[in-house]
Amino acid sequence: MRLELDDVAVEIAGARLVEDIHVTVEQGAFVGLVGPNGSGKSTLLRCAYRALKPAAGTVRLGGDDLHAMKPRSAARVLAALPQETTAEFDFTVAEVVAMGRLPHRERTAAGDRDICARALARTGVGHLADRGFLALSGGEKQRVLLARALAQEPQVLVLDEPTNHLDIAHQLDVLSLVRDSGPTVLAALHDLNLAAAHCDVLYVIAAGRIVASGPPHDVLDPGLLAEVFGVRAHPVRHPETGAVQLLFDLLPSGPGASTGPASSPAPSPDPTVRTPCAS
Ligand SMILES: Nc1ncnc2c1ncn2[C@@H]1O[C@H](COP(=O)(O)OP(=O)(O)OP(=O)(O)O)[C@@H](O)[C@H]1O
């Protein structure tokens, strides 16, 4: 199923945090969103998973206006892994994952149990099923919440920094498992090498606006990385696979000249979308 943000803007308390957002995630594609701290990634994603209503523009899920859909209809096809989840009650891990089945109540409980067990196993947290969620480590919580999202059997998955808190093996594993599980994916990622390795298309956001998009190795050029992130990037080839990896050091000008919300100036000289995304 296709996800599309068409000319979206988001305002909170009168401040415009993101604007002019055109993002298309084709059915089955894995699309990454990268940008400096405070550039608007979570705000954009929250709008894409229905936690924030756009002040302008439309989010379309398979052609329907996501924000006009009934919550349960949307939750049957779209799941999200938010950056922060507050939990007031200490549910067990098994109960948290079972919440992913709530939008599909007409299925049998036995079917639900199998789906949840598979999701727990695929994310490597089956052994934690009877533990309380609140006492888990950051990485364990992250994988349980991914299990809950997978248990929802979504056609579209929106992930806000899914590798946050994860060790390197789990970072690689989680992105591969999301990719192999087949839904359309829109994910904010901080690690540019992971983003390049796993995404079909990348969007770069700075100061609340998309400033570049396209295939990862077209988008992540040293000039743009210097402008947007304030780093010098050195491309090197993996000695075995030949894949290009980037090594970074800080430019004297320092990080992110463009970290603020949409009302701050976008990076100069020209916030050009370098390679238009397929739509
Ligand atoms: N509820 C809010 N009220 C006011 N400002 C907000 C609110 N939520 C976010 N902002 C501001 O909007 C801007 C974008 O925030 P957002 O969380 O979307 O950035 P981000 O790119 O996800 O950052 P990070 O990489 O640090 O997670 C920031 O300047 C932030 O302080």
UniProtKB/TrEMBL annotation:
CDD domains named among the record's database cross-references: ABC_Iron-Siderophores_B12_Hemin (cd03214)
Keyword Nucleotide-binding: yes
Domain annotation ABC transporter: ranges: 3-232
UniProt keyword ATP-binding present: yes
Any one GO molecular function term: ATP binding
Region listing for Disordered, in residue ranges: 256-279
InterPro entries: AAA+_ATPase (IPR003593), ABC_transporter-like_ATP-bd (IPR003439), ABC_transporter-like_CS (IPR017871), P-loop_NTPase (IPR027417)
Keywords, comma-separated and alphabetical: ATP-binding, Nucleotide-binding
Protein name: ABC transporter ATP-binding protein
Organism: Streptomyces solicavernae
